[in-house]
Each structure stands twice: as C-alpha cells, then as structure tokens.
Amino acid sequence: MIDRQNDPDPASGAQSEADNPTAPRGGRRFAGELSDRYDLWRVARPHLEAIHRAISDQVSRFAEAHGDRVNAVDIGCGDGAITGLLLDDARVDVVGVDNEPKMIAQALGGMTQWIERGRLSVVEADACGYLAEQEDGSIDLVASGYVFHNLTPAYRTKVFAEIRRVVRPGGLFINADKFARDGEAHYQDLKWQVDRFFEAFGDVEHIDILRAWVLHYIEDEGPNHLMPESATLKELGGLGLVDLSIICRERMDAVMVARKAV
Ligand SMILES: C[S@@+](CC[C@H](N)C(=O)[O-])C[C@H]1O[C@@H](n2cnc3c(N)ncnc32)[C@H](O)[C@@H]1O
Description:
Strand order of the largest sheet: 1-4-3-2-5-6-8-7
Strand content: 15-25%
Shape: globular
Largest sheet: 8 strands, mixed
CATH topology: Rossmann fold
Helix content: 40-55%
Number of helices: 10
Order of helices and strands: EHHHEHEHEHEHEHHHEE
Structural class: alpha/beta
Bound molecules: S-adenosylmethionine
C-alpha cells in the first residue's frame, strides 16, 4: 500500500549534520512522542478549523477554474490532515509524501478507502527526494501543512525550488505553517500558544506531551527553524512564484498561497 523511497535526500546529498533536512541533531522530528499523540496538538490550536477552511476554499476555487481532474501532492502528509481536505474535493487526486513511518501509519489507518478508489497513494520518502523524481511542470497543486518550519533554511530553499520546478504554469502552491510575524507580534503569538499548551495538557497525565510540545516550539524559535513570513514570501517571489499572499492568519499559524506564472 505504501511506496517506499528510503534514500533521505538524493537531490541535495544532504548528509551532514549542518545540512540535514530535519536538523538539529539529525533526527526526524516526528519519530517520538509527538507522533504517538499527534492528535493532541490540535486540542491546543482551536483555530485550526479556520486554517483548514481557508485551504479547502482555495482548493475548491482552483479545481473549479482548472476544469479537469487536479493532481495534487501533499508534502509531509503526516496523519493526512491536509490530504483529507484535498480529497474532500471530488475533482482532486493526491499523492501523500512523508519520511516518518509512524506518521504514515496514522494516515493509512483512516484513508484506505481513498487508496482503494484510486484517488490517493502514499509514498514514504524525503520531500526533496520525491520531488526531484517528478517531471518539470507535471503537478497541478502542491499542498503542505506544518512541514517547512521543521526543515533547515538551506534545505527549505531546495524544496521550494523543486516545488517551483514541478508545478505546472498556472499551478498552485498552498502552505499552512508557522509563519513568524515581524517583531513583537511574533512573541505575543508564541506566548498565547504556549498558554494554550498549558491549558490543554497541563494535567499530570499529559505532562510528557506538554514538555515535548513546549520544547518543540522553543526549538522552532532557533535559526534552524524559524520561518519569518516576510522573508519567506520574498524568497518564493525570488524563485519566480507569483500572486503570493497570506490568505488566513491565526496567531502563529498562517496559510500562504502562490502560483507559478503562466
Ligand atoms: C507537523 S507534521 C504535519 C502533518 C500534516 N501535514 C498536518 O498538517 O497536520 C510534519 C510532517 O512533516 C513530515 N516531514 C518532516 N520533514 C520531512 C521531510 N524532509 N520529508 C518528508 N516529510 C517530512 C513529518 O514526518 C511530519 O509527518
């Protein structure tokens, strides 16, 4: 049921600690307790529904204008949160790509019906490795949720460049993620989010998951992970993507859309 491509990153040859896609320390960031209880992350983000609604609206509008079946790739599909939104539109077929077997197992648990109907395939692969094997302009829509901030800036740039290459002219890139606002606003957003973690997991039973998410969010503040909104839009524009905009902002989280010029 799963297609496996085990080479970590054939496109970039990223093997060193400094250039590892999931730095620091070279580990996959969702191999531990965060993937075991990934569902709990949602409890601490009451705004996730609004983020997902923005994605669904955008996908529907794109499929409507496209007028034919849409082939989409969900980068870092995890347990299938974004994949499910894409599949909710009957005109969209999806390839879900993720390098963490435990997350893929969760996606497969709830999505076999789509695989059986031929609308979904799941590939265990590194994002850059998978994209490097796709032809220029062969994909209508690349979607992703909460993946890019886990990548080092150098590796993120490689994945962005691959996305620009594989998306067809007029195609769409839509990415929900932690895009840091400039200045004080970002720290207010972070404070609000950490407070939600304590509210959601502050009881003794969930203390380990509380620690894991708070430490993950602190690590996300470092230069290896922080993804500033303004710099990221500038970078994507520099790669030649157009019509860049943030279509939804909820505290730390935002939905960014971009097009490949026709
Ligand atoms: C926070 S989860 C997001 C899951 C889902 N997209 C969502 O919106 O909830 C990040 C996912 O990205 C995957 N991931 C991180 N780095 C990756 C890489 N280099 N290649 C493929 N998947 C990656 C992780 O394994 C994890 O499943």
